[in-house]
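Progress against Task 2.4 (sequence-to-structure conversion) is shown through the following example record, which the project officer requested during the mid-term review.
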Amino acid sequence: MNLLTIGKVTVPAGLAAALAAVFLAPLLLKVFAKTKAGDWYSNAFFVFFLTVKMAYVLFYWDIFSKSPVSLLYFHGGAKGMLLALLAVFVYLLSLYKKEKVPFASEVLPLFLLFSLSYFLIQSALAKGWLASAVYFLLLMVTLFVVYQKRKLGVEAYSMLYLFEVLCVSLFNSIFSPGNLAVLAGGLFIGLMAYLTKGGWKHE
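Structure tokens generated for the chain above:
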């Protein structure tokens, strides 16, 4: 596990990259698309992080009971990621039934901005400069599309998502729990956008 030391605090590099991307993505969306992320965005990540951390307590109780501070450094692993994804999917499906969330102008670009920021920061922390350059280029392309259109159609999203999957398969381990969780989330969001034809309407 790659660890990052900030002052006197040491955290997993993947967690640091994810937290940085969570805050960076809505900032980029606001600057380039003049769109503010809704409450659903922060709520979804809160549900994910809380679930994946609590899954560590559930699946690794023996270790946690002996060293509670280990919760800061570890998570529920692949099983915890799966449980956290299911929790987020349930939350998003509840929004699908109760209210309108703009997919083309908010959900699709926000996910791409988050995921690309995550992979870019993660690669930079690991000093994978070639991967960082490729993710940065893909992020700039996404920002250009968002800036020009201020929305992202399902077709454009699908193309950018496929390029992202290709990059992850080339430069990272696509089956690591963190990367797999991000890519699975993107697939779920893309499918929901396709089924609702770019809108978030429950018929």
